[in-house]
Amino acid sequence: MQQFKESMLKLIIETSTNLPSDVRVAVTKARLAEEIGNRSSLALDTIAENIVMAQEEESPICQDTGMPTFHIHVPVGANQIVMKKQILEAITEATKVGKLRPNSVDSLTGENSGNNLGPGTPVIHFDQWERDDVEVKLILKGGGCENKNIQYALPTELEGLGKAGRDLDGIRKCILHAVYQAQGQGCSAGFIGVGIGGDRTSGYTLAKEQLFRRVDDVNPIPDLAKLEDYIMETANHLGVGTMGFGGKVSLLGCKVGVMNRLPASFYVSVAYNCWAYRRLGVVLDAQTGAIKEWQYKETVDAIDTTKRESKGEGARTVVLQAPISEAQIRDLKVGDVVILNGEMHTGRDAFHKYMIEPEHNTPVDLNGGVIYHCGPVMLQDDSGEWHVKAAGPTTSSREEPYQADIIKKFGLRAVIGKGGMGPKTLKGLQEHGAVYLNAIGGAAQYYARCVKKVKGVDLMEFGVPEAMWHLDVEGFAAIVTMDSHGNSLHADVEAESLNKLSDFAAKVF
Ligand SMILES: O=C(O)C[C@H](O)C(=O)O
Ligand code: SF4
User: Fold this and answer.
1) Greatest CA separation found in the chain?
2) Which of 97, 128, 318, 441 gives a 20 to 30 Å CA spacing to 421?
3) What is the spatial distance between Cα 239 and Cα 500, in angstroms, rounded to a whole number?
4) What CATH code is carried by the domain that includes residue 395?
5) Among residues 310, 327, 354, which one ends one of the domains?
């Protein structure tokens, strides 16, 4: 097994930087299905471009390289202890060279281990089989879409859909609801794995196992095959769209598995995976550990990045230079595309929690400034200079309890993130003259390219993803989805999709 570690490093790098063929096909289909020129189709153009950039530059597709989760089949007698040790070494190496973001955080102290290792990280499942080869499958599922996983206990009452009973129709309702509740926060359009039955733990495990199925396979259980087809057809009428912008495509794949349950329990567990569905596999020679075959890479590798021009007027584009004035912000309306130049500062969970305290102040003046909800992948060169390797937005809703007060405290004019924010922030934007800009989630290469210089960093004690990075950007494009006049595209899309959800309340199965 002298080549095992090298093979694992290749698998990790390839998984983080190069989307599987079946996922590429699904993204391409979504682009063709979406209405040309609407917000979702513009977002899909950026996503396609980002996929190609990540592959060409061998850099992370999304800055959140997720929880590395390995599913391994070994022949009887294979040394799992050695394999595990070498996987940990490969993870450390991949982190050091910027292919994985340091993502393992002490839940009590908040300390980032810096190398993606720690209790519970990574996740490795071993199974024996009677073949001679070793098979290793890897999924890198990010935290934002992980937060949109949901588990239902039947019977239950679901908003928009009413009663969901302990039968196939109840299961159908849960799955539709799962797509609805994710909105754009898990970087829709996503892929869902569903586990019917089990207990709370095994149900989720089964749901996640479904994510190892190919997008285009057919469920061997006829009832479930019918259910998967129905969900794919119906969920795409909910109007969530790419990034929750509204549109024709809300779901790219649905795979359902079933297992027995206890008489008292009936769980439907849903694992939501963003469009950046990073999973690959390799078959290895059990003697040498060398890669014999790649999995999920068997069809076309190309993705078309040609932009399809809209015949209509398209959105208004406004170029802004930070710092921004209140008058410039008041002029912006939901739907405008903003191209931002100048300085922006990253600030996410730890930043907001810290800065809300009256005694804490930012190290730089943020008046008229821009905060970017982003936890980038960064590398430092020999001269000590930092470089951005991946820098897409993170889910903004986690900052909802703090955002309005932070805007007020520091005189912010723009907050950039994804998935939108709630009523408290909307009111804050109105009161203090600020705007929420939605960047395209997962488009980490696209945005990394906009960063012309890393001007500095503060609060490094929060770890690389949570530190406050000061960035000079050029041509950073995002869409106004919450303006300073009380309008929120997110509130509108959510209300419309709930309305559409209720069209599917009647019994189907
Ligand atoms: O942690 C991140 O960078 C992003 C996260 O995956 C998210 O979707 O919010
Ligand atoms: S930012 Fe979006 S694309 Fe990236 S891991 Fe989170 S949910 Fe997935």
Assistant:
1) 70
2) 318
3) 8
4) 3.20.130.10
5) 310
Cβ of 324 less than 6 Å from ligand 2: no
Confirm or reject: Cβ of 122 under 6 Å from ligand 2.
no
**Nearest ligand, CA of residue 376?**
1
Same domain, 189 and 95: no
ipTM of the complex: 0.99
Containing domain of residue 106, as a range? Answer: 1-142+280-310
Instruction: Examine the domain organization and report whether 126 and 25 are in the same domain.
Output: yes
How far is it, in rounded angstroms, from Cα 395 to Cα 188?
A: 12
Cβ–ligand 2 distance for 215 under 6 Å, the answer no
Domain count, the chain: 3
Same domain, 265 and 163: yes
Same domain as 200, residue 339:
no
Strand order in the sheet with 67-75: 123-129, 67-75, 134-141, 278-284, 291-295
Same domain, 150 and 196: yes
- Report yes or no on 502 lying in a domain: no
- Residue whose CA lies nearest to ligand 2 atom number 4: 442
Answer yes or no: is 498 within a domain.
no
Which atom, in ligand 2's list, is nearest to the CA of 395?
1
For 185-288, list the strands marked E by DSSP: 190-196, 251-258, 267-273, 278-284
DSSP 319: E
Task: Count how many residues are written for the chain.
Answer: 509
